[in-house]
Structure formats: C-alpha cells, structure tokens
Input
Amino acid sequence: MPLKRSVNSLPLFDETLKEKPQIKIYEVTNDRRGIDEFINLPFVIYKRDKHFCPRLIRDQKRQFTPENPFYSHSKVRLYIAKQGNETIGRIASIINYNHLKYHNDKTGFFGFFESYEDHRISRELFKKVEEDLSNEGLDKMIGPMNFSTNAECGLLVDGFTEPPMIMMPYNLSYYESLLISSGLKKAKDLFAFLYILQDTLPEKVYRVSEIAKRRGARVRLINKKNLSSDMKAFQYVYNKAWSNNWCFVPIIDEELSESIKELKMIIKEDIVAIAFMGDEPVGFLGVISDFNQILKILMGRLNPLNIIRALINIKRINQGRLLLFGIIPEFRNKGIEALLFCEVHKGLLKHKIKKIEFSWILEDNLPTIKIAELFGGVLYKKYRIFQKELK
Output
C-alpha cells in the first residue's frame, strides 16, 4: 500500500517553484553559522510534528567536531541546500575507513539527511554525496547512517503513529519517495518490535534459563562504579557476536569511551546484565530507559525552566529500549538468552516499565526475531537502509 503524505509535513516547494531561486549546495565548514544552519533545519521542518524529539543542541554540535572519535577513522563532509537565503535541505557524505578495511569493499555512506518535500532538493544533495564518494574511488553508497550501524541508522518507512525511542531515527513519511526519486533502492530493512511488559515471562523462558545454569552459565548486573570495565565486557561480546552481521564495524576503544559518557547518566544498573561462562563474558543484555520522553520536553535546549521540568518528569519514564543484546556465536541456543532476560525482567518490574522496544533487528536475523515474538513482541516499525551503485 503506498505511503500517505504526512499530515504534519510542510507544503511542497514545487508549489512555489516559479517564485524560488535556484537550489545551491554549500559545504558546511567549521564556521559556527554553517553548523547552526545544519542543526537547526529539522526544528523548522518538524515544527508541526508531534513526534519530533531532537537531541540536545550542544550534543549535536559536539558530534560534528574532532571530539567525536568517529572522525579519527573517517572523513565526514556536511552539506546544506539553499534557495536564496533559506536552508531547505542537508546531508552528510561519510567515508568510514574502518569499514573499508574490515569489509575490503568500496562502500561509502550518507547520513543526517533532511529535506522539504521537493525531489529537486534531494536529487541535488545526493548528487553531491555521490560525487564525493566517486572521487574517492568508491562504487556504492549506503545509508542513512548517522554515522554507522553503531549509531542511529535507517529511514523510517512504516510505523509513523508512535514517537521514536531513544537513539532511534525519525523522519516524515515522504522521505522514502525522496530517496527513491534519487535512484536509491532498498538494501536492508531493520525491524522494531513492541513488547508490553508482563508480570511473568513465558514459562519456556524460565525453564530454559535453568538449563543454562546447570551448564555453568551465570549472570550478573552491571555496576556503575565499574562501568568502564563492564562496558569493556560488552565491547568484547559485541565485536564477537556481531562480527558476521551485515555492514558491521567493530566498536573501537575511543567510541566505547564516548558511549560510556553518554549512557552513564541514563543507564540503570538493574536492567543491564552480563552473562559469563567461567570468567569469559559471553552475552550482554541491556535495556535503556526511553530518555526521549525527557528530550521531548527539552526540545534541544537546556535552560533553568527546562531542567526543572525534566527533573519533575524523569521518574515518570515508563518505557525502554532493548538496545544492547548479543551472544557470542558458540554460546547461542544454550539458554543464556533466557537467563539474561530473567535477570533483567526483575529490574524492569521494579522501575515500573510498561513497554519495551526490541530494536533494531535485521530483517533476516530470524533467531532474534523469534525471541521477540516469543515474548509477545509485535512488529510495529520498519526502518530501511538504502543503497545505490555509483558510476
């Protein structure tokens, strides 16, 4: 069924085409004005959208500086599209040298795409990214990636009735047509399942978890006092568990340190757990409270009034995202998944979490999809990664 135009979208620029000057693409350098234009555009495009939930502006600015460890192994160029003095679109071209080394291919990426509903804008933006990547000898473009699969990625193509959860992207429904009109095609879909938390887990989960215990598996919750070492365990599991996944890139130490800074304020110890066989970490499961419920209040800005409002509402967060989950391949299907869920489930009940989003899951990751379905999870959002062969 064709997607319907969002009721919250702004008017087509084509409606006033004769009155508008030519679209021009400008590269954003480190000047403050350009970065401000790049970051502020979504606040205009989504100003009538009730689901828009931006990150703090200060954090957005920081991610486009060398302070972001991603820049240590990548080349990122930011562009804005303008008509006269009006900013009407934006995009980033991304060359991830760690990806090129790991996969030994010639793939580049695009990300941070935003645009009014005008195919001319998107075509000009993608044309510029294609030129960048082709000039570097690359033969394929994939995205959106903000900045890689280790961060936000995918374009929402189904499930516009619910707001995004923490660290998941959001866009208006017409965006898919903008990408298609620019010659991009589906590469892979990412699924999000919604699970309404129950007081007890399926009986099979408890039964299987006992089998894992008898086989010597054990689980412990993380400790914020030792968060760095616990996250190192996560890094070890993640880089082994995901190593054969599509478009995977290992998390490097500097990126892990950055993630620790971001998660330290919002992570809860009793809903994040590590599984061990002997002394070796073999599994990791972590639910992150949906801090988007607070970011929605802040709308990108920290000021005394917003801080007070956030502090009042922070205890009202009642949903979360199952963000961190992985089992090292040789330890899968041994009950460790169930053991992790049993331990974390206790904390979820304690914090009165009502809903959990399992995301994201690759469309062909059938074992994880089956786990989501076992718990009664319902597929309620689809995100799409697009690709295009470059000439």
Remarks:
- The chain has twelve helices and 15 strands.
- The longest strand covers residues 185-196.
- Confidence is low (pLDDT under 50) at residues 1-17.
- The radius of gyration is 21 Å.
